[in-house]
Write a structure and sequence with these properties.
Phage tail protein beta-alpha-beta fold, alpha+beta, seven-stranded mixed beta sheet, seven-stranded antiparallel beta sheet, sigma factor antagonist activity, 3 domains, Jelly Rolls, 323 residues, flat
Length: 323
């Protein structure tokens, strides 16, 4: 744990332009040894990835990291990656949290039950001790105890995508309000809004969803919609609409513009001002992959008559001919 805490501190110094040559090289060496699937937190909060990259590049060019030797392609490439993501390790007693904007490291090694929370502006990725992976969508919380490897049990509030490693001797269970989802090995999403509604959607394999009153079995491309004692199973017709967010896709399907504004606010963690009235008539459909906020707004302009202005704390969008 001490080593990871030291690396987290080095990353903070690099982002601030205060790293020594040894710290700079330590971060590069650490990054070189990380597997791609361990790069777990993507940063969209406040600043886009491209802006962070430009900022770090300018720091290097201006010599703010003046002691860093050979700050060339290798260093720049590695630090760009770090600016876009940091590592979260579960099961060793610590959590490396978001390091951009307000650098913060949370080392929760004194508790038996661990909680991971995700706000807006990022998708947080976790790899569990059994090798299973979870992606937390915006405003989502997940809990599990230190004995996870012995029970494979988690609690969820919000929305998450699960890729579960198969273990025929120990099912993987997810508890939400009123329901338990159980799998041996598969990939699926769960979206819960408290007791009002829970959606379980299967991407691969099959899952079992149950409570004291009822039980459902779902297969690939099926979705359960459960609400206060009643549930129905339907076929998934647009996989991107359900699973796309876990692949960095923002997806709209005949969505109204209030939905558009809500999605932008959640994905980029920035306040959206607009001129929409309750009676607006415009709709939007489309899939947008891994875009900065400005690039996304430019792309949307091809579909909608609108203008926009971005500053550090908010975005103002003026829609035309929609009210």
């Amino acid at each position: 744990m001490r080593k990871e805490k030291s690396i987290a501190q080095h990353i903070q110094k690099v982002l601030r332009g205060q790293a020594s040559p040894q710290e700079f090289n330590a971060v590069n060496d650490w990054y070189d040894h990380q597997e791609e699937d361990e790069l777990l937190i993507q940063d969209f909060k406040g600043r886009t990835k491209s802006l962070i990259r430009k900022e770090l590049f300018n720091k290097i060019q201006r010599g703010r990291i003046s002691n860093a030797p050979n700050a060339g392609n290798r260093n720049i490439k590695r630090i760009f990656g770090i600016a876009a993501s940091v590592v979260m390790v579960i099961g060793l007693g610590f959590v490396l949290s978001e390091l951009t904007q307000k650098p913060k490291v949370d080392f929760s090694d004194k508790i038996a039950f661990q909680k991971v929370e995700n706000g807006v502006g990022m998708v947080k990725k976790i790899r569990l001790p059994d090798g299973s992976r979870i992606q937390l969508f915006h405003n989502t919380t997940i809990e599990f105890d230190r004995n996870f490897s012995n029970n494979r049990f988690v609690k969820l509030e919000g929305e998450a995508f699960f890729e579960v490693v198969a273990n025929p001797n120990l099912p993987f269970r997810v508890q939400t309000d009123g329901l338990t989802t159980e799998v041996l090995g598969t990939s699926f999403t769960i979206k819960t809004a408290g007791l009002e509604e829970t959606k379980v959607s299967v991407k691969t394999g099959k899952v079992s969803v149950s409570n004291a009153q009822t039980k459902f079995e779902l297969h690939k491309d099926q979705q359960l919609i459960y609400s206060i004692g009643a549930g129905r199973v339907q076929q998934i017709t647009n996989r991107d609409l359900v699973f796309g967010w876990a692949e960095d896709k923002i997806v709209f399907e005949n969505s109204d513009l209030f939905k558009l504004v809500k999605v932008l606010d959640a994905w980029y963690g920035i306040q959206i001002e607009h001129n929409l009235s309750p009676n607006n008539t415009c709709r939007i459909s489309g899939t947008y992959l891994n875009m900065s906020l400005e690039n996304l707004l430019q792309a949307i302009q091809y579909s909608l008559p609108m203008t926009y202005q971005i500053d550090a704390k908010k975005v103002n969008i003026q829609f035309k001919n929609c009210n």
